[in-house]
Specification:
Layout (H helix, E strand, L loop, with lengths): L3 E12 L5 H13 L5 H6 L7 E8 L7 H6 L5 E8 L2 E3 L8 E12 L3
Parallel strand pairs: 2-3
Antiparallel strand pairs: 1-5, 2-5, 4-5
Keywords: GTP-binding, Nucleotide-binding
InterPro entries: CHP02058 (IPR011719), Tubulin/FtsZ-like_C (IPR037103)
GO molecular function, one term: GTP binding
């Protein structure tokens, strides 16, 4: 049976100094997670390990994100991570130290009857 999306949470994160895209991505994921509660899963008696968790990260330089670190930061489910062009870099011409802003979308799918 096809899994259906039951949760979609969005988040934003940044690295204001250092230009670390992974740090910004991890912060975006944590922001999204803190907007969410798994009370629905408890009410339906669904094991959190059964969740299919699809994470999409948007940053200006997708190749600079360690997707495995992002995947490992999710506490439950079978997690996949896709990194795409998005987010925002805010340049600091004086210091050559851009602020990196990442966005995250976390979709949870369940196999429901």
């Amino acid at each position: 049976m096809p899994a259906r999306r039951v949760i979609l949470e969005l988040g934003a994160g940044n690295d204001l100094h250092g230009g670390d895209y992974t740090k910004a991505a991890l912060r975006a994921v944590q922001d999204a997670l803190h907007h969410s509660s798994l009370s629905m899963l408890r009410a339906l008696q669904v094991d959190p390990k059964a969740m299919l968790v699809d994470v999409t990260i948007g940053v200006q330089q997708p190749g600079q994100v360690d997707a495995e670190r992002v995947r490992a930061s999710l506490p439950h489910g079978k997690v996949t991570v896709q990194v795409v062009k998005g987010g925002l870099d805010v340049p600091d011409a004086e210091r050559h130290d851009p602020a990196v802003i990442a966005t995250a979308a976390i979709a949870v799918r369940l196999e429901l009857p």
